[in-house]
Amino acid sequence: MNITKSISAIEISGRFDAHEATSFRETIEQELTTSSNIRLSLAEVEFVDSTALAELVRAMKKCREQGGDLILSEVSGPVAVILELTKLDAAFTIE
Amino acid sequence: MTASSLSDYHQWASTPLSTKPAYSVVIPAYNEAWRVVPTIGAVATYMSSLGQPWELIIADDGSTDETAALVADLDLVNLHLLTGTPNQGKGHAVRRGMLAARGDVVLFADADQSTPIEQFEDLLGELNQGSDVVVGSRAADGSEVSNKSAARHLMSQGLKFLVTTGFQIPVSDTQCGFKLFTREAARTLFSHQVIDDFSFDLEVLFLAKKFGLQISEVPVTWIDAPGSKVDAAKVAAKFLTDLVTIRFNDIRGRYNQENHDVTKADLIEDRSIKASLDGNACNDDENSSHREPVDDGPTSYDSTVGADRTSTTKHEVKL
Known about the structure:
Structural class of chain A: alpha/beta
Number of domains of chain A: 1
Number of helices of chain A: 3
Strand order of the largest sheet of chain B: 8-5-7-4-1-2-3-10
Helix content of chain B: 40-55%
Oligomer: heterodimer
CATH superfamily of chain A: STAS domain
CATH architecture of chain B: Alpha-Beta Complex
Strand content of chain B: 5-15%
Shape of chain A: globular
CATH superfamily of chain B: Spore Coat Polysaccharide Biosynthesis Protein SpsA, Chain A
CATH topology of chain A: Transcription Regulator spoIIAA
Distance between the termini of chain A: 28 Å
Structural class of chain B: alpha/beta
Radius of gyration of chain B: 19 Å
């Protein structure tokens, strides 16, 4: 028996703030139609504001509701610190 | 961003400075609970990566939301929280922060990261060329502006016309919340500056020109942060009033240098340092009139405090 687990990969870059929230949400919802596991690369993200953090939490909950997860990967320094300061680093799966 | 940059941040976050800071970053905040923590994270990560001792000052304007509590709970040892009476105005908050700053150069930056902190080095380069004040500009050649509303754009153009024709201030954008000062310039300008609301930027630049300081302008990238509290119509009306106020103050001699010693700076600095050493926030608005200088004695935090505090006993101080 072969078990395969499909993981979608998304990469975002630049400034992730409220201006980008709608676009991000639409992308996540589109990905969720094919996979409940999403790997989100944040290597090139310079800043996330509170709206963006809320979108990340929302995306994580959606993935987990469907039995998967949102995995944050290659988290940039500023984003890592912001997650740490908001204590959201404990809530996400980060690799 | 490297692992060493994160290490630099963690070092800054947990180890009190053993020397006077090279850089101070002052961020005014009024009801910024929704966005102040990400801004602190971005600023702290970047500034720590520069490899110089630095301090962060959050000048809370007596927020009625959780801003002050959130900042205090971060427990970052080189972050100093100044608290105050509710909503005295942005100019009031910035003044408290700038006068408390101990860095060789002092950056004032808005709480919304609309001018990303990574542009600090662009302004620093200009300061190192001999300028006393470097203004981040959204109007200079090379600037990039995103998501700015038509109303704000129109207001900016109007203000630019008034400032350049009425005050001969040699910058195209007086209001961008990203300005760098030498410590001496910051102390001189903010100990004279009296306007408490958003027109303080113009007043500070007017004073810089009046005092013969070197002002430069650097183009910046600016992104209009959602949730901006700027009401273009109200701002324009108030700005016009303040233009007259600044002229009137000048004519009355309120900005004459002999009328101002560094009393406010010394008092604020003393109390901020004491609060920092005690691990507490500093309330700058308690007993705000008829203050006598506080003589806590020199501290290891800043050995220059005692020297600067001379001849301050005869002045009434209103913060």
